Amino acid sequence: RLQVDLERSASINQSLGSRVAQCSLNGLADFLFSFQRKVEMFHEGMQSGMLGDNEDGYVSRTIALVNCCPPFRGFVQRCAQWDSSVAENSLQRGNKSLDFIVHHGVKVLSERLYLHVRPSFERLVKRKWLTNTEPYDQIEFLIKEYFKKYHRMDSPPYQLLVAEVHHRVVMEYLRSVMRGRIICTSLKMRKRMAGRLRDEGRRIKVLFKDLESPSSWLDSALSHISEIIQLEDVPSIQMEVGVLVREFPDIRKKHVSAILNIRGTTRQSERQEILNVVKDIESIDGPGSGSGPGSGALSRLTRDRALFSEVPVTSEVHCLNLGLSRVALTASSCFSTFRPRPRKTR
């Protein structure tokens, strides 16, 4: 109805069209803020159990609420484009309410999916995982099942949802890798682990390509890590690490160090040669980071492609424990040599 009134008034004269556009936008901004509050109350009620525990109903209603946003946003933009004198405050308020509804809906749906796949992520990158594809099979199956419902979401909110899930899946997979629950002790074991990472990384890529994810930049992380684990000579590893750093500017030396732990690289000289390839990106985020040429562009790139910065490294703790245990064993053996032995009785 508002769209019709705007078009009719605009056909009469420019001044009337501008006034109708401004009044419509002011009223719409107020309505959208009220709508936002109702949506917040709905989610709070569902999460507290006040409105029942029907998950399918919750998902359907959340998608329906999000699907209201693209038409509203289109009309907001239509009013704003009609006359540059339209109140900027109303435009910002309207878009802010719509952004909240969309992002909150995306967060709710992605979290509900993650709660179901989380147990399978806990089983990744362990010794049994090397010969068992069931954990990842289950993750992929659940994602496909959930997206049969999520496909009812309209674009562009759907792209935000699939990008969020894509990012979460790759990030959680990397978390499993960085826990360092597997330390390769032979070339055969390295090849087997690299092969599994490569295969499952390829499956993730195909899965989210089919789901029309706009975040294809995530797909190369696991393939680069698999190559670092499998390669044997230091120059080739250095080259692969360099590519990984360029594609993911938020990676840190601790992440590369964890990968070297996994592949069983224990020689300190080799480790240092490889780690030297990692640029000191941390200095870019420190004080005065904006003074260097191109630093602003790199900072924006880091924010847009944040992945490893959200992945903690815990494998170094295991390495420390391993080192301490070796020291303890050595000390114990030394003391045992000085321990008096009981005399033999004849």
TrEMBL record:
GO molecular function, one term: SNARE binding
Name recorded for this polypeptide: Exocyst complex component 3-like 2b
One Pfam family matching this protein: Sec6
Gene3D superfamilies noted in UniProt: Exocyst complex component Sec6, C-terminal domain
Organism expressing this protein natively: Gasterosteus aculeatus
UniProt similarity note: Belongs to the SEC6 family.
One Gene Ontology cellular component: exocyst
UniProt record, GO biological process: exocyst localization; exocytosis
